[in-house]
Write the structure tokens for this entry.
Amino acid sequence: MAHLLSRLLNRLPTHVGRLPRVSLFVTLLLPCTVLNAHTPYAQWDAYRVRHLQVVTTRSDLTGDAVADQWVAVLAEHLPESKAVVSRARNFVRMASLLKTDQAKVAVLSHADAKAMHEGAAPFEDYGPMQLQVLVDDGVYLLVTRADLP
């Protein structure tokens, strides 16, 4: 590549040849770096396959604390799950992650789980979701998509 750039620089008109070579080199490479930029999606997919993500929301601190406790139990009794707590921005984002199969397990209050299951507000954009209850502590539910193996 350096050889190609050297040949290109030698063919430039003399007024361009006066520019500092470093800035010209950066200018020429900029489009290449933009085109070669990568996205983290492949890494996220691999991460999701290796780790059981228990999704909570940043807006529900109590549910988040419950998720931390349940993940600790999973780590002790089912370490191969590599369970981690993942915090969604809000409940609607959580529904999106579950609906699109980017997450399989979530911590929800009884009311939020019922609304998600029925496709009621604020989950009407995602329609009714088939959820299975894995754990019920009386206040919060650990739910999963119906297709969890």
